[in-house]
TrEMBL record, chain A:
Transmembrane regions: 9-27, 33-52, 64-81, 87-106, 113-133, 153-172, 203-225, 231-248, 260-279, 285-302
GO cellular component terms listed in the entry, alphabetical order: plasma membrane
Lineage: Bacteria, Pseudomonadati, Pseudomonadota, Alphaproteobacteria, Rhodobacterales
Keywords: Cell membrane, Membrane, Transmembrane, Transmembrane helix
Protein name, UniProt field: ABC transporter permease
Membrane topology qualifier: Multi-pass membrane protein
Signal peptide positions (record): none
Localization: Cell membrane
GO molecular function: transmembrane transporter activity
Automatic annotation (TrEMBL), chain B:
Record's protein name: ABC transporter substrate-binding protein
Major localization class: other
InterPro entries xrefs: Peripla_BP_I, SBP_2_dom
Organism: Sedimentitalea arenosa
GO-annotated molecular function: carbohydrate binding
Amino acid sequence: MSLLTRHRIILPVVSLALLLAATFYMQPRAMSYFGLNLLFNLAVPIALATIAQMMIIMVNDIDLSLGAFVSLSACVTATFLNDTPGIGLLILLALILSYALMGAVIHALDLPAIVVTLGMSFVWGGLALFILPSPGGASPGWLRTLMTVKPPFAPMAVVAAIVIAAVTHLLIMRSGIGTVLRGVGGNARSVARAGWSVLKLKALAYGLAGLFGVLAGMALVGLATSADANIALRYTLLSIAGVILGGGEFTGGKVSPTGAVIGALTLTLAASFLSFLRLSPDWQIGAQGAILILVLTARLVFRQKGAEA
Amino acid sequence: MAISKMLLVTAGLVMAGGLAQAESKLADTSDKRIALSNNYAGNSWRQAMLQTWEDVAGQAVADGVVAAADAYTTSENQATEQAAQIQNMILQGYDAIVLNAASPTALNGAVKEACDAGLTVVSFDGIVTEPCAWRIAVDFAAMGKEEVDYLASRLPEGGNLLEIRGLAGVFVDDEISKGIHAGVDEHDQFTIVGSVHGDWAQDVAQKAVAGILPSLPEIVGVVTQGGDGYGAAQAFKAAGRDTPLIVLGNRQDELQWWAEQRDANGYETLSLSIAPGVASLAFWVAQQVLAGAQVPKDLTVPFLKITQDTLDEALASTPEGSVANVTYALEDAQQVIADAK
């Protein structure tokens, strides 16, 4: 086995490094504490959403409601959590539980996750509009402080990315329960034979996704200072792309939390890079897609070489 | 609104006069760079807006008023995407950002970052609530009231009015309607006997008006929100009723119809709406702030009013399927600033 197939994290790291070097070359101002924070602070909620998506992809499902769910969490954060923190916290907990319940229902009734989550996206979207019919609300003071904190040595965005990657790496790659969760994606039947309840495990995976979805919404409000019902709709596709870019696969429980965080950073950076290039907006979506395809192609090529060797 | 008539000038012959005036007492802005952050480009109004920016800001760069005036449009009309775009502009070293925002509140964090980094942020049309930014807002309620004021001047005896509203649930629709009802309260010789939603589209308005007409008494005037006057006129014609006094909204098809009616039977009315050229006003306001002028944070855009006298001129300069437009010059911006003080 080649080095690259054994350490699937290498490719995402190299992609990010190359893109970062190109960005610094184009825009030397970005190469500073202040610049790095501006480049990456909006990647923090995306990274959290990508981790949430990764939890779902880990158990061989896909979540099309994540963007709407993050929007809803943002609306709750900007209204209830700010005005009546107790009730806000309860609502956010209820949201996480409802995600776990959604996972349990999907497994118990053997429903396709893609259909259920697509349906739920309208429920989340409707609730968000109900809570915040017109844009508004305010970020709780402590959240704003947390998202604009200026730690020594490295800017908040970089520190946050490292913390998110480290915590989720420990949880998913190192802990016992994380290994079993990945096992559900790899071979659910053998996990069940080993005496685990797949229903509970799926509910746990979805619950974790809900937790990180809520955190993404909170981080977003901390950055934006307020919310609207459509604030995070593009996170659905961004998060899926982030997981794949970071070395995750749609089947077999093959995911990488560190890779997912790096994938989210790469996608954010790619958008900024294209904007620095002064590429017309009509081309930007296409160019983002091209970057994604490029990385995936590179992965495929290396894997085939690995298989031959 | 005496200046709006003055504002009705075609693109191109605008800048030269203002330059000398600006140089006389304000700081030089020839090394300053301004960026336009725009969230959407998918309709004729936005296309006209971007074209105006290109004309006016491009000319200002050529004349050396500012060093750069680049336009950026986000691809997905999403607040998070535009927030990233604004943060990129800070990194790119722009001195000012002119902003048509995807959300009045969700960009506040990014706008604050820009202000803290020393940039001037001027929002227009889609304004932001962050206090450090300037706002060039549209007083839609005043627009609605102006329609009724005009009807009162033309029809002192009053009578029954039909109201055509916009898209339900949208802030603009609420505001214009509020203004119209305030106007009717003031001129109590008028009664609104019917109200339909025309969704700012001629075909929808025509269907809606045709549906309600049989149940209505004689109508003397129709108050509209723009994009619906022509459809209303067609519905009245199809029903075989006399054409009432319809206030129009600057769309090319409305102006065309007005000109035809005027030539045929001396029809007289008023047309008013917001010009996409407001982008050029925002550009000059940003330039004035950079030059060190004292500019109040909240400014109001004048409407673009077309009267019987200016109809031919407006019609000639409006491309088919588009909206009547004006380009604002530096003096117009200075006038708007002075009015707000």
